[in-house]
């Protein structure tokens, strides 16, 4: 075997024959010690694995009961956003914070006195790109798990109903009020239409009287001038005839003025009635639109929904017995190796 030369030109002994310092560990001794104690290590590992296996197989199977729910919808605009009665984040937060734990416990104790409700077994999540809430409960008793979710859903539905009910009642009260106002406005419109019809009749009658007065006055003036021109009259009689003719014409002009004034008043009344009719028609249209909008909103209201009823997932979710046995084997192996080394070290120190 070749040897290396140090700076003092002295040969270096082979690596295998070099002595180990006291503070270094000889791995060969360690493995030799472990191999010597293999039965002790194997027995310890076996006892740990058997104990862990017994515990794992004695633990009851855990099943996951789940349901998918959606809060109520109070507004759904075509092409617009949907307004929910409650924020899903709020509902999820209330469940996660255990807001319903006390109520659930009181209710479930009456139904299942032998079982205990564990709030940590209740989970909630919001699926991606969804407006729903997924809630689940892990339990060894499937009926108990279904009862937990059924009671929880009942409480969520009750809370949601407390929001929807006053909202619908308010809308319905508004519809009833608007319908009552519509009925009154329709009566007003009918009355205005009747008065307008009467005023138009009166206007037509007065206009006919005015036309007749103008025509008769024109005819009288023409007839009077012709009669005065055709007859031989004295100056005095002509003067009297002219005075009489002027007096008749003036009287007819007075009548004409009265009729024109009456016609003007009728036109003012007609304009006022038409203005009232137009304003009432606009108000009636607005009320009708309000009634239709409220009715449409009520129609689109969707109460709290249980989209996927309470159901149990296929297969159990725990315990993972294979993982328990594997972890117990690994942990016990390390523990027994460590324990063996400690025991050997103590023996060495005693010697």
From TrEMBL:
InterPro entries found in the cross-reference section: Bact_polysacc_biosynth/exp, LPS_length_determ_N
Keywords in alphabetical order: Cell membrane, Membrane, Transmembrane, Transmembrane helix
Main location: membrane
GO CC aspect terms: plasma membrane
Gene Ontology molecular function, alphabetical: protein tyrosine kinase activity
Compartments reported by the entry: Cell membrane
Keyword Coiled coil: no
Protein's name in the database: Chain length determinant protein
Native source organism of the sequence: Desulfoluna spongiiphila
């Amino acid at each position: 075997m070749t040897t290396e030369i140090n700076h003092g030109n002295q040969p270096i002994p082979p690596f295998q024959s070099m002595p180990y310092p006291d503070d270094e560990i000889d791995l060969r001794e360690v493995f030799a010690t472990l191999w010597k104690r293999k039965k002790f290590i194997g027995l310890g590992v076996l006892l740990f694995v058997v104990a862990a296996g017994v515990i794992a197989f004695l633990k009851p199977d855990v099943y996951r009961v789940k349901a998918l729910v959606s809060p109520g919808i109070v507004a759904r605009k075509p092409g617009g956003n949907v307004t929910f009665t409650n924020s899903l984040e709020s509902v999820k937060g209330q469940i996660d914070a255990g807001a319903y734990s006390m109520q659930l416990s009181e209710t479930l104790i009456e139904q299942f006195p032998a079982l205990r409700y564990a709030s940590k077994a209740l989970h909630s999540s919001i699926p991606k790109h969804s407006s729903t809430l997924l809630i689940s409960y892990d339990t060894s008793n499937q009926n108990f798990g279904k009862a937990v979710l059924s009671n929880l859903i009942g409480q969520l539905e009750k809370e949601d109903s407390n929001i929807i009910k006053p909202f619908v009642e308010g809308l319905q009260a508004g519809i009833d009020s608007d319908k009552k106002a519509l009925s009154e406005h329709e009566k007003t419109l009918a009355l205005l239409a009747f008065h307008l019809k009467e005023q138009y009749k009166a206007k037509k009658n007065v206009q006919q009287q005015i036309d007749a007065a103008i025509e008769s006055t024109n005819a009288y003036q023409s007839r009077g001038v012709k009669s005065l021109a055709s007859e031989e009259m004295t100056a005095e009689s002509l003067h009297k005839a002219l005075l009489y003719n002027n007096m008749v014409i003036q009287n007819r002009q007075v009548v004409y003025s009265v009729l024109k004034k009456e016609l003007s008043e009728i036109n003012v009344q007609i304009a006022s009635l038409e203005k009232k009719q137009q304003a009432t028609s606009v108000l009636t249209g607005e009320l009708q639109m309000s009634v239709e909008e409220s009715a449409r909103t009520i129609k689109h209201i969707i109460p709290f929904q249980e989209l996927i009823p309470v159901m149990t997932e296929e297969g159990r979710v725990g315990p993972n017995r294979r993982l328990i046995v594997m972890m117990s084997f690994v942990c016990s192996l390390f523990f027994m190796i460590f324990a063996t080394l400690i025991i050997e070290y103590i023996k060495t120190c005693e010697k």
